[in-house]
Design a protein that fits this description.
The protein has 70 residues and is an all-alpha fold. The chain has helices at 2-29, 58-68.
Length: 70
């Protein structure tokens, strides 16, 4: 019986350590907060379809618009 508890404790401990290690690595090297709100990401369709996008240069707007034309 104690062997089962030991295995469970080791497995739970390994998961906790792996999670904390992954979280700390992601915190240092991962995507910065606000990245998905940036103009370049498209914000997953949350922006309305307009010709003018705040923070986007005219050249970039023309380039992105030309990508959708066939």
């Amino acid at each position: 019986m104690s062997n089962t508890y030991l295995r469970t404790a080791i497995t739970a401990g390994a998961f906790i350590v792996a999670f904390l290690l992954g979280y700390s690595i992601s915190e240092r090297t991962g995507i910065e907060p606000g990245y998905f709100g940036a103009v370049e990401t498209g914000a997953y369709g949350t922006l309305e379809a307009t010709d003018k996008v705040e923070g986007l240069s005219v050249e970039d707007a023309y380039y992105y618009k030309s990508l959708t034309e066939e």
